[in-house]
């Protein structure tokens, strides 16, 4: 049998890129200690340099350890990339890693400026996918990996999506991603001044993070977890925070149930993909003609899982408009609402 993970380790050690599966989306990985390899990520993606990358780290051996030893094991792992690791980071690592959470921490001295975009902080994540974990264990180092898509385009959730984006790239096929959208990013680098801040919503919610930090620290006043959208503080650069992102080439318009669909973009469209939540309601608006109906799960976890594959497959057909029902307002929908709003802004531009 061919040892594909072994081949990937060799490819990465020689300074080349590999497409890797994670539970969120596929990543375009390079050796985090090799500046030439890191520069290939920016060139391949067409991503402006200065946009920082996440370093993916291996899971320490935690079996048979008591709670204190587990914290110490995470601390040792984190200290390879971050300095002054706060206890909050250890609590979150123990609660959510391996998993869809990225922490922003003050960077260790050795972290390349190519990774941090010249900032004093670094993003770190331990992904929860058996192939990624095995690769990281055998690689025995950190892997810098953004989502494996051209800059601004839809993130890939299957190996085939990555091949479509980057023909010829070695891609480890780990099946379709469980989560389907990118990790939650929490900034722990300014705990003294602004407290923990969510920079990008994801599968791990603000409430879950809040619960772990406030319960275990036995705080009198609960810690506040601010979202970037409500924060008034200056925030570090996050490319996912550009408003146009995760976008299909086909124009995408979000609509709410109570909105009239009688506008020019919709009237002029000749072939519409009408995507709506599986909420038992029928499509009634007579002003929309020539549409094909697509029903997506009316549940934030299932919708996240299906979202990017749905957008990619619609983008491959000849629709001139994707009319997408906006998810409800509840906080459990924050992450998919975030991705869909950005997709709408960036859509139809190329
Ligand atoms: O789920 C994920 O996070 C996926 C998988 C592959 O792990 N990765 C991912 O990477 O979404 P990327 O590069 O597409 O998005 C990472 C985001 C970017 O918006 C980047 O700006 C932000 O993380 N980021 C990385 N380091 C940062 C730092 N030091 N400060 C602020 N933001 C940072
Ligand atoms: Mg990305």
Features:
single chain, 350 residues, alpha/beta, DHBP synthase, Rossmann fold, 2 domains, nine-stranded mixed sheet, four-stranded parallel sheet, binds threonylcarbamoyladenylate, binds magnesium ion
Report on this structure.
Helix 8 (206-217) links the parallel strand 8 and strand 9 (226-227). By secondary structure, this protein is α/β, with parallel strands linked by helices. Mean pLDDT is 90; it is low at 230-236. The longest helix is centred in the last third of the chain and has 17 residues, at 300-316. Helix 4 packs across helix 8. 32% of the residues lie in helices and 16% in strands. The protein folds into 2 domains: 2-227, Alpha-Beta Complex (DHBP synthase), CATH 3.90.870.10; 251-346, 3-Layer(aba) Sandwich (Rossmann fold), CATH 3.40.50.11030. Threonylcarbamoyladenylate (TXA) is lined by residues 22, 24-25, 27, 51-54, 102, 104, 116, 119, 121-123, 125, 127, 145-147, 182-183, 185, 199, 236-240.
CATH class group of the largest domain: Alpha Beta
CATH domain fold name of the largest domain: DHBP synthase
> How big a fraction of the residues is strand?
15-25%
Distance between the termini: 42 Å
Number of helices: 11
Mean pLDDT: 90
Q: Give a quick account of the main beta sheet: strands, pairing sense, barrel closure.
A: 9 strands, mixed
Name the CATH superfamily classification of the largest domain.
Answer: DHBP synthase
Gross CATH architecture of the largest domain: Alpha-Beta Complex
Helicity range of the residues? Answer: 25-40%
Low-confidence stretches: 230-236
Query: Order of strands across the widest beta sheet?
Result: 1-2-6-3-5-4-7-8-9
How many domains, as an integer? 2
Order of helices and strands: HEEHEHHEHEHEHEEHEEHEEHEH
Number of DSSP strand runs: 13
Ligands and ions found = threonylcarbamoyladenylate, magnesium ion
């Amino acid at each position: 049998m061919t040892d594909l993970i072994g081949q990937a380790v060799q490819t990465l050690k020689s300074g080349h890129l590999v497409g890797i599966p994670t539970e969120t989306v596929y990543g375009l990985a390079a050796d985090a200690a090799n500046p030439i390899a890191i520069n290939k990520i920016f060139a391949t993606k067409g991503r402006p340099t200065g946009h920082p990358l996440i370093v993916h780290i291996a899971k320490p051996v935690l079996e048979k350890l008591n709670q204190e030893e587990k914290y110490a094991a995470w601390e040792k792992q984190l200290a390879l990339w971050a300095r002054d690791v706060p206890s909050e980071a250890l609590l979150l690592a123990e609660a959510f890693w391996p998993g869809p959470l990225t922490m922003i921490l003050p960077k260790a001295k050795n972290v390349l400026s190519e990774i941090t975009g010249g900032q004093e902080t670094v993003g770190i994540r331990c992904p929860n996918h058996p192939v990624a974990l095995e690769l990281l264990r055998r690689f025995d180092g950190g892997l810098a990996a953004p989502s494996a898509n051209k800059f601004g385009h839809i993130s890939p959730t299957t190996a085939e999506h990555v091949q479509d984006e980057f023909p010829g790239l070695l891609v480890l096929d780990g099946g379709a991603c469980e989560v389907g959208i990118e990790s939650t990013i929490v900034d722990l680098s300014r705990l003294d001044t602004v407290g923990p801040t969510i920079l990008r919503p994801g599968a791990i919610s603000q409430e879950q993070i809040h619960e772990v930090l406030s319960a275990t620290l036995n705080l009198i006043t609960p810690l506040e977890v601010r979202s970037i959208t409500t924060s008034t503080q200056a925030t570090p650069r996050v490319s996912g925070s550009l408003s146009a992102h995760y976008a299909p080439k086909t124009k995408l318009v979000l609509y709410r149930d109570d909105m009239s669909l009688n506008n020019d973009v919709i009237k002029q469209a000749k072939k519409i993909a009408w995507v709506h939540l599986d909420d038992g309601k029928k499509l009634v608006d007579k002003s929309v003609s020539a549409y094909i109906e697509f029903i997506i799960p009316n549940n934030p976890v299932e919708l996240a899982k299906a979202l990017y594959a749905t957008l990619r497959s619609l983008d491959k057909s000849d629709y001139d408009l994707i009319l997408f029902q906006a998810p409800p307002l509840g906080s459990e929908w924050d992450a998919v609402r975030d991705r869909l709003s950005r997709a709408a802004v960036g859509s139809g531009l190329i």
